[in-house]
């Protein structure tokens, strides 16, 4: 940027050229309801960043905005996930609060959707699932760390040049619990969940899943489920009106996918999916998309070393996070490593095919369970041999493990069920099991219910593994007392 350009920019925006922390602002990139986004450069490291600056007048007029801004810094600082925006620095200077974040080169999902729509095109379904699966992974990670986004929408999903999705703008995670009316800044009406629209403090993980479902609905049909002349009208539709079935707007959507979307858009949060990844995985299966076409799901823990302390947030300090320098990769070594990996995979594949038979595409199965019963439903058209199956909660080899050789005959016939129930439990099997009495085993000790959420060594076990022939083929959520869940996945079928 030339001196003449900088001078002209300062006349339009006095922030251009100012130094905030280590960053000198050089261009205004975007404006929002409570902040402006500038491009800035770290004067020490030469690193470019996006600088979010709280509007000075708003900060003076409304102290809750500064508290929200400060809390956004804290929440982002404790999250480290490849699909969540990275924070570099937070600070305050002469009444200006700022947040320096990684600058993402690309466009947001709203811009990409608008570009395609303007060209008379729609986004490829595989690409839709690939992008939103990454967002789902980011949301689940945030939820596991007690962070609710509250404003999931296309413009808050940045898309890099290689289609990596980055979830940004966590500004509404600091929404005050006292702000409970429709008149408050509770989110974006077009994508807001019913419970959040009525009272923002009621927002929960399922509220973000609802918003994600609205985004998916819009990408698949070309428009959101609810529109209106005013934000209030749209919000009221989310609260009381049933969403139009997606297939009424796009008949190419599979029935199973429509069912998953409508489940995620249920008015009652408890009727929605437990996790965002579960929702998107079911959509993926509904479209028959191979997992190899999607990015791996990332699960990580918090990064306490980067947390901003209360003293740093409240005071005038400008805490800095360590820059990720990384090691420079040697291209030749990388190529050799890739060749070695390919050879290794080929050898392993040959050994496996020689000893066990080459696996072919699996068949769908479903698990339905609550705190007193567990049902394995073979939804495929073939009989499954489950002798080599294992269900493991926590550490393998303990007395809550369950092996498939306990199933009578070691087999579950097509469209049939096998049930594990509490002794004396007379609950009816799921309707999928059809007529007749399914095979079952009764247990008297609930501690052996591998699907139940229990505490081991002070930690809650929130999932159990399904293994086949020693390999993990699925991980499913455990349920707390009074809860229920389901888990669908593909059962491998050897030749």
Describe this structure in words.
The chain is of the alpha+beta class and 495 residues long. The chain is 29% helix and 24% strand. It has three domains: 3-103, Phosphorylase Kinase, domain 1 (2-Layer Sandwich); 107-293, Transferase(Phosphotransferase) domain 1 (Transferase(Phosphotransferase), domain 1, Orthogonal Bundle), CATH 1.10.510.10; 362-494, Immunoglobulin-like, CATH 2.60.40. The protein is built from twelve helices and 22 strands. Helix 9 runs antiparallel to helix 10. The longest helix is centred in the C-terminal third of the chain and has 26 residues, at 331-356. The chain starts with a helix and ends with a strand.
Short description:
The chain is α+β, with helices and mostly antiparallel strands and 495 residues long.
Strands of the widest sheet, in order across it, are 1-2-3-4-6-5
Percent helix: 25-40%
Estimate the global geometry from the Cα principal axes.
elongated
Strand content: 15-25%
Could you say how many structural domains there are in total?
3
Structural class: alpha+beta
- According to DSSP, the number of beta strands is 22
Could you report the average pLDDT, rounded to the nearest whole number?
79
CATH class category label of the largest domain: Mainly Alpha
CATH architecture of the largest domain: Orthogonal Bundle
Could you tell me the radius of gyration in angstroms?
26 Å
* CATH topology value of the largest domain: Transferase(Phosphotransferase), domain 1
């Amino acid at each position: 940027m030339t001196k003449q350009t900088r001078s002209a920019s300062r006349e339009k925006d006095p922030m251009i050229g100012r130094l905030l922390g280590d960053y000198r602002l050089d261009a205004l990139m975007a404006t929002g309801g409570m902040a402006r986004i500038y491009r800035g450069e770290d004067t020490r490291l030469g690193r470019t960043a996006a600088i979010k600056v709280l509007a000075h007048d708003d900060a003076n007029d409304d102290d809750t905005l500064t508290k929200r801004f400060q809390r956004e810094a804290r929440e982002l600082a404790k999250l480290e996930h490849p699909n969540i925006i990275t924070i570099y620095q937070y600070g305050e200077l002469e009444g200006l609060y700022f947040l320096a974040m990684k600058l993402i080169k690309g466009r947001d999902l709203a811009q990409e959707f608008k570009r395609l729509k303007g060209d008379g095109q729609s986004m490829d379904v595989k690409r839709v699932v690939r992008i939103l699966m990454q967002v789902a992974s980011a949301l689940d990670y945030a939820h596991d760390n007690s962070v609710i986004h509250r404003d999931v929408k296309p413009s808050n999903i940045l898309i890099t040049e290689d289609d990596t999705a980055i979830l940004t703008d966590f500004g509404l995670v600091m929404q005050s619990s006292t702000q409970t009316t429709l008149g408050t800044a509770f989110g974006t009406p077009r994508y807001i969940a019913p419970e959040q629209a009525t009272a923002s403090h009621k927002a929960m993980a399922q509220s973000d899943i609802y918003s994600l479902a609205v985004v998916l609905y819009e990408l698949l049909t070309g428009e959101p489920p609810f529109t209106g002349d005013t934000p209030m009208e749209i919000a009221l539709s989310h609260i009381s009106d049933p969403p139009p079935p997606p297939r009424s707007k796009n008949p190419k959507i599979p029935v199973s996918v429509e069912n998953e979307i409508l489940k995620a858009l249920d008015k009652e949060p408890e009727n929605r999916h437990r996790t965002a990844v579960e929702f998107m995985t079911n959509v993926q299966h509904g479209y028959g998309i191979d997992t190899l076409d999607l990015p791996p799901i990332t699960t990580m823990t918090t990064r306490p070393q980067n947390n901003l302390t209360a003293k740093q947030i409240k005071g005038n300090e400008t805490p800095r996070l360590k820059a990720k320098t990384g090691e420079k990769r040697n291209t030749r070594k990388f190529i050799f490593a890739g060749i070695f990996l390919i050879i290794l995979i080929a050898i392993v594949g040959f050994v496996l095919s020689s000893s066990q038979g080459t696996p072919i595409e699996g068949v769908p199965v479903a698990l339905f369970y609550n705190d007193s019963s567990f049902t394995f439903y073979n939804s495929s058209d073939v009989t499954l041999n489950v002798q080599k199956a294992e269900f493991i909660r926590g550490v393998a080899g303990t007395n809550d493990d369950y092996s498939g050789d306990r199933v009578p005959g070691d087999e579950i016939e097509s469209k049939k069920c096998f049930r594990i129930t509490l002794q004396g439990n007379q609950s009816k099997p799921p309707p999928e099991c059809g007529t007749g009495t399914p095979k079952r085993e009764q247990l008297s000790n609930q501690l052996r219910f591998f699907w139940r959420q229990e505490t081991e060594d002070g930690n809650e076990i929130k999932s159990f593994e399904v293994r086949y022939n020693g390999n993990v083929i699925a991980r499913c959520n455990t349920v707390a007392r009074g809860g229920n869940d389901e888990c669908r996945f593909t059962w491998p079928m050897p030749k």
